[in-house]
Amino acid sequence: HGFQIVGLKYTSASNSAFITSLYVVFTPFIAYFILGDEVKERDALSLGVAIIGLYLISGASLSFNYGDLLTTLCAVSFAFQIVLVQKFGEKDYISLAFWQIFWNFVFSTVYALTFEGVALPVEISPWLGILYTGVFATVIAFTLQVKYQKETKAHKAALIYSAEPIFGHISAFLTIGEVLTLRGYLGALLILSAIWNEIRNENR
After folding, report:
1. Helix-strand-coil percent breakdown of the chain, rounded to 5?
2. In Å, how far from its chain's centre is CA 189?
3. How far apart are CA 49 and CA 33, in angstroms?
4. 1 near 38, Cβ under 8 Å?
5. Which residues contact 80 (CB under 8 A, 6 or more apart)?
6. pLDDT tens, 139-155?
7. What CA–CA distances, in Å, run from 45 to 25, 172, 198?
8. What would the pLDDT profile of 95-144 be if each residue is shown by its tens digit?
9. Contact criterion met (CB below 8 Å) for 139 and 101
């Protein structure tokens, strides 16, 4: 998260969103060396379609700068996290989820105190956002990931996680009325098609 946050200071939000999602590409390679997982041709096709979809839905450009480099390191870190959860999640998922959240909190706090300082919000809305992201997007999300990801392959899990921007846009539509462009809808369709292709192949 640190690479992503700092990277946002030097690149656009759309580039950050797309480059972060490149963990979909990095995960299969890391899983091959750490877990011995092999990616079949149909899996590679699904991953490729998902990447195109992520590019379209994010609205990213093809430029590359220092912020993009930092965000790429974030994507690599996410890929390692997915693979390591796959490797160690079967042993004690509660402990693994706890220590992920704990060290995330520690490093985020150190970064905030070092570079940003402490500024407590006076309005209630920021606290509601903090509460929501802390409980649902962190504690519950990490715990469910660690508990159930072991039921599939690491690269398939990464592909499923690539649906995140779709849910993000649904939330944006429901809360602030933000509407996707035609390019965004096409990207969402490609992502869902890639996930459906994997599910269909899994059930064969």
Report:
1. 80, 0, 20
2. 18
3. 23
4. no
5. 30
6. 898 889 888 888 888 98
7. 11, 29, 10
8. 888 988 898 888 888 877 887 777 788 889 889 988 988 898 888 988 89
9. yes
The residue type at 97: A
**From the CB of residue 141, how many other CB atoms can be counted at a distance below 10 Å?**
14
Taking the C-alpha atoms of 6, 12, 18 and 21 in order, what is their torsion angle to the nearest 10 degrees? 20
Provide the domain limits for residue 100.
2-202
CA atoms within 13 A on the CB side of 193: 14
How many folded domains does the chain comprise?
A: 1
Given a cut of 70, is residue 41 above it in pLDDT?
yes
Token digits of residue 115: 């570079």
**Chain-centroid distance, C-alpha 191:** 14
Task: Determine the Cα angle at 142 with ends 196 and 145, to 5°.
Answer: 35
Q: Which amino acid is located at 100 in the chain?
A: Q
User: Residues for the chain: how many in total?
Assistant: 204
pLDDT in tens, 171-190: 878 877 878 788 888 988 99
Q: Which residue has the tokens 């939000």?
A: 13
Distance CA 48, CA 25 (A): 8
